[in-house]
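G., before I forget:
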Amino acid sequence: MMAPLRIAVVYPDLLGTYGDGGNGLVLARRAEWRGHDVTLLQAASDRPLPEADLYCLGGGEDGPQVRAARTLIDDGTLVRRVAEGAAVLAVCAGFQIVGRSFPGAAGDSHDGVGLLDVDTVKPTGPRAVGEVLVEVDPDVLGPLPTLTGFENHGGVTSRSEGTAALGQVVAGVGNGVGDGSEGAVQGRIVGTYLHGPVLARNPALADRLLSWALGDLVLAPLDDTEPENLREERLATVGGKRRRRRRP
Amino acid sequence: MRAQLAGATTRVVNATSRRLGRGQGTVAGGRAGLRLDPRLLEHLSRGRQVALVTGTNGKTTTTRLLTVALGATGDAVVSNETGSNMPPGHVAALAGTRARRAVLETDEVYLPRVLTATAAATVLLLNLSRDQLDRTNEVRMIAGSWRAALAAAPHTHVVANADDPLVVWGAGAARDVHWVGAGLRWQHDAVGCPSCEGRIAFTEVGWSCAQCGFARPDPEATLVVAPDGTAHAEWADGRTAPVRLALPGRFNRSNALMAAVAAEVSGVDALDALDAMEAVQEVAGRFTVRSFGAVRARLMLAKNPAGWDELLDLVADSDAPLVVSINARIADGADPSWLWDVPYERLTGRAVVATGDRFRDLSVRLHYGGVRHTTEADPVLAVSSAAEGSDDVVDVIGNYTAFHDLFGAPQ
């Protein structure tokens, strides 16, 4: 009998502001529906981070974000588990804190966990808020359909050379460094600014992460009527608006 | 002179807008008046005793309860009862009356500037939690803006919920604070300490930060809810009184106690205030039963995870058909990701219909939550379809504009 797949939602008490806890639920259900035994862990910040195969970090506010980063660094489990092969999905504040550095509420720089070679600073302009569409780079994650999500962040994230972006925005802001990039991918760590939650809107990305966590297993298809209906509506609404805006 | 002209313009535009049937006539006139006199709110507030009611949830109901309580003295009380809770709505309400007392529902982001303009005698701070994050960004920023604004308003009396750490932070620099143990069911936004970035620990009796000592202040009045749902208030000075309301829900008892303490600060006995509130039957359509053809539906409003958590609890014992309706228009917030913070799993086994502009987002949430449901884009048809095969009144819970779509629909 295979050991259960362990999925941990990291510090929902600090990084649970933007509904990203839903990513853990989506992953757990999609594995269960395929017959896998799953343990879904809500990992509170006042306890040691549990051992898991797949970690999900979400968006949070500036103050709690600083505390989450410091606690993860002191705890050490996340870095060790990644070295042992665990996969990570890190969204928004979570994306920033798995990078090398990120800004606190006052704009001062804080150390990140250092799993992704990215650095985040405060933008000079307004927050990036709104719907996003992202074309994924097929060389990075293999072919994936257009990603849809909602961004809401005050961060500009630059990648070091050799760190791939998740993709290119065709609507929205993304990393905000002027090259149209969104997110970052290194090994089995995916960082992104997309809420929605991103895996609720993009089941193919959920399955890519699950496949990694299950030892590169090829996953059987699921009935995705509900998520596909949502995707279709979001792509049409956001894509349609974008085209209209471009007309003179 | 300019203020008089602007005030008159506000009244004329409002009356015209109402006559033309364009809405409730509370924003257009206010905007016109403020264009003529940007300090119109300040001018209209002069000489009045103003109370501001703010927080994420319960603003409209608490505003109504306090208005009724203050009105029981026989004084005329003006209020922005249609829920237009930004300066144009405030101006519109004040322009039409000489009432000496005013109770103004105030958007939580606008509190600092409305406080400055009105020099309010009393401010009620109910609670703070995630809501419309695309507009408000972070609840800690709001708490911080309250704190700064109230520190600069030494003549304002503050009535604040001692059970919400973010509210306590927001009120903490004010000169005169009346703390109320009003309860806080949704604690998920308050774990990170607003004072030091430590961690707030909640216990049965209170909360505190282990790192900096920031802790729940001792309240002067506390709401006590019995297992059977009945509630009473206990004052630190030994008084007790039942909190009876025609309105349902624990959260409304909490709103009533906040309003009673605010009434006392404004010179009305708190127990008399609670008595007066018992007469309130409905507030801006919430919990009213409406007919749609042959079908009857009870309309409920929940805008955010904290509100949904309370209402799902309220309908937990019922097996009436349920319609859930979600929009993501400007007044709702453009990002419905918060649906994933709502414990919809509690609806497992109920007959549920998902509707509203964003029924597809809701449907995905229910799908992963294991809640069987059908979908119907049109909210009125959704109510009819939910009623099929049942004689019960259909329960409908919608967020802000979704609620108003049905409340305003032809009967």
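The two ends of chain B are 46 Å apart (CA to CA). Chain B has 15 helices and 17 strands.

More on Monday.
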